[in-house]
Design brief:
Blueprint lengths: L1 H8 L7 H13 L3 H12 L3 H8 L10 E4 L9 H18 L4 H6 L1 E5 L5 H13 L5 E3 L8 H9 L3 E5 L8 E7 L10 H11 L12 H4 L5 E2 L2 H14 L3 H9 L7 E4 L6 H10 L6 E2 L26 H9 L4 E5 L6 E7 L4 E4 L2 H19 L8 E6 L5 H9 L2 E5 L3 H13 L3 E7 L3 E3 L9 H18 L4 H12 L2 E9 L3 H12 L12 E2 L4 E8 L4 E2 L17 E6 L4 E6 L5 E9 L7 H20 L1 H4 L2 E2 L4
Parallel strand pairs: 2-3, 2-4, 3-6, 7-8, 7-9, 12-13, 12-14
Antiparallel strand pairs: 1-5, 4-5, 9-10, 10-11, 14-15, 16-22, 16-23, 17-18, 18-19, 18-20, 20-21, 21-22
Helix pairs in contact: 2-4, 5-7, 5-9, 8-11, 13-18, 15-19
């Protein structure tokens, strides 16, 4: 440290007291020689703008915890920020659990994916907690994200962290925090942890040595894999009635085949074992993507939600091996994409998240009734986020179970599921349109492994028992509950000031007056009935004009409900430089002209994007078409 300070004394600083103080703090605190040298190099280059951006801004909790590019700086993911975050989390847990005996009795659990630095970030975090006399569960191998929240409830832990950036590009990483109930943190814990981090920025110990032999010599450090993973699969098998598992075995070796890609992530061994546990024919792996590789060499954007551009190799493998179904996990295996071969077009149709939710919602309800024929529907619950399809709401109206809408993100749905379970109700299913599915409360988060086992069993049952494709079943579901057609996409914008300007224009639409929004699109052809703004808390449909869902001024979200039934939500992403839009037309069972509903949806969405986001005027980049 003395050498860096001495070298710094010989360099002219910026003259900005705040920035210069942050530079000194970084060099004093950072125990990583590479990132410390990188900051010194920026000082030597007098790159004050980059240093100001990196050191005078701080990464904060979003919809999926912390997530950012791996590079030096308090706004990024690196050793120092991870140590600071772990210190803050540790101090907050101490505050919430002042009895020191609980720290070693109840433990904290850490997992990591196969990205660059994920293992190191998890080990650094473990060291922080070990030095504070916590018993720590640290998975030795990389794990699918769902195994961290499952471990929390299985082992009665105080909290847990999965180091992952999910489907983000290779340069990113993240820190996903779960509370003692097994769900992701929500207020007040997120703000409490953030505050504790800011109070504990200076590392109070030598955390930087992650020598494996020394680390695993610690008596308080345990690998939970053997305690947790077999139990996870047992819980999965329990959710599928034994007759279906028996039928899976009887149809092994038949012509029904499923191709699978983990997108260079951690999913394959977990999917392989899940399929074995439920007696499904082993998947046909996409050989070029089956091994974890943090470089993501064949798919720079390892996000199966992006569509065919990210699934080219999976489609090629499925075509060569005559597979009817393609399953794809994102790199940390908490999300699931599904495609099915369409013999009419000779192409694979990729289902969107809302379509998969309709299929899984039907399947989970069907399975529940098979397992509990005398069950009480009114005591059953399904949950969806506000940007997702209302198909579960339509099902609930006919089948008499309860459905609930939450804010965006599984942190809200997981906590809502726990709330309902504690009230004595049976939560069957939750989903978000971004291909995230929770098919029981064994894991209070999206789970791409259990969802894959259910989709595989459902597809096999429909094909072999009912002679139906997934698409044919989806059409049948629409006939029963009403046609639901949706468009979920985005434009790209990295300018936070511009984003605020775009949304503020919409909420001050009449000459700058607050709470005045567009009244129609396409020169009055389609009129807006209600507006709900969860950034400001305004809801025109409420008697008191106040929204009932939680409000957050730190993120942008406006929902427009049109007179013809179309609902569209505009929001900013919590993890990527995107302004998203989610639109859906909800038909009634009596509405049989599906093409008309779809065409109207497309016309309206095009107009909404053009009139509300104004991509050309604002220089926004549209999503590349598949």
């Amino acid at each position: 440290m003395a050498e860096e300070i001495k070298e710094l004394e010989n360099m002219p600083l910026s003259g900005d007291p705040k920035l210069d103080e942050q530079i000194k703090c970084w060099l004093k605190w950072d125990g990583n020689a590479k990132t410390k040298a990188a900051i010194l190099q920026l000082v030597e280059n007098k790159d004050w703008e980059t240093l100001r951006n990196r050191l005078c801004n701080r990464i904060s909790f979003g919809t999926a915890g912390l997530r950012a590019e791996m590079r030096p700086g308090f706004d990024s993911m690196n050793d120092l920020v991870v140590v600071q975050t772990a210190q803050g989390l540790c101090e907050y847990i101490k505050e919430q659990n002042p009895d020191k005996s609980t720290w070693s009795e109840r433990c904290i659990v850490f997992g990591f994916d196969a990205r660059h630095n994920s293992k190191r970030f998890a080990e650094l975090s473990a060291i922080v907690f070990l030095k504070n006399n916590f018993r720590v569960y640290l998975y030795k191998p990389y794990v699918a994200t769902p195994l961290v929240p499952y471990a929390i409830t299985k082992l009665n832990c105080l909290a847990g962290v999965q180091v992952t950036a999910s489907h983000n590009p290779k340069q990113d990483n993240g820190y996903k925090v779960y509370w003692s109930n097994g769900a992701q943190i929500i207020p007040p814990h997120d703000a409490g942890i953030q505050s504790a981090i800011l109070k504990n920025l200076e590392p109070v110990g030598d955390y930087w040595n992650t020598d494996v032999t020394e680390l695993w010599s610690k008596e308080l450090l345990i690998d939970p894999y053997d305690k947790v993973v077999p139990s996870y699969y047992a819980a999965l098998v329990k959710e599928i009635p034994s007759p279906f598992i028996k039928d899976n075995r009887e149809h092994r070796g038949h012509t029904f085949k499923i191709a699978y890609t983990p997108m260079h992530g951690v999913g394959y061994p977990y999917i392989k074992e899940a399929f074995e546990q439920v007696n499904l024919e082993p998947v046909v792996p996409v050989s070029q993507q089956v091994e974890p590789d943090p470089e993501f060499p064949t798919t720079p954007m390892p996000n199966p939600e992006e569509g065919k551009q990210s699934l080219d190799l999976a489609i090629k493998t499925a075509t060569e091996k005559n597979c009817q179904i393609i399953l794809a996990n994102d790199p940390d295996a908490d999300r699931l994409a599904v495609a099915e071969f369409d013999s009419k077009t000779n192409k694979y149709k990729l289902f969107n998240g809302n379509e998969l939710a309709a299929l899984l919602g039907w399947w989970i309800w069907f399975v529940y009734n098979e397992r509990e024929p005398k069950g009480d529907p009114s005591n059953c619950v399904m949950i969806y986020s506000t940007v997702s399809s209302k198909i579960l709401k339509s099902m609930a109206a006919i089948e008499n179970f309860k459905s609930y809408e939450t804010l965006t993100g599984f942190k809200w749905m997981g906590n809502k599921a726990m709330e309902e379970e504690l009230a004595g109700r049976k939560v069957l299913f939750a989903f978000e349109e971004a291909i995230g599915f929770m098919v029981s409360t064994a894991v209070l988060d999206k789970d791409g492994v259990s969802a894959a086992a259910h989709v595989g069993t459902m597809a096999r049952y429909l094909r072999c028992q009912k002679k139906m494709t997934l698409q044919e079943k989806l059409n049948e579901i629409y006939k029963m509950y009403g046609y639901h057609t949706s468009i979920c996409s985005y434009v790209i914008c990295s300018d936070q000031v511009l984003i605020k300007q775009i949304f503020n224009r919409l909420r001050t639409f009449d000459n700058g007056e607050p709470n005045t929004y567009p009244a129609s699109i396409l020169d009055g052809e389609f009129k807006i009935e209600h507006v709900r703004d969860l950034t400001t808390g305004y809801d025109s449909s409420a008697a008191d004009k106040k929204a009932t869902l939680p409000v957050s001024s730190s993120s942008q979200m406006i929902t427009f409900t049109f007179e013809n039934g179309l609902i569209v939500t505009l929001r900013t992403s919590g993890t990527e430089p995107k302004m998203k839009y989610y639109a859906e037309m909800c038909g009634k069972p009596k509405d049989e002209n599906w093409n008309e509903l779809t065409n109207t949806l497309h016309r309206m969405v095009d107009a909404i994007v053009n009139e509300f986001y104004e991509p050309e005027k604002n220089g926004l980049q549209r999503k590349a078409s598949d």
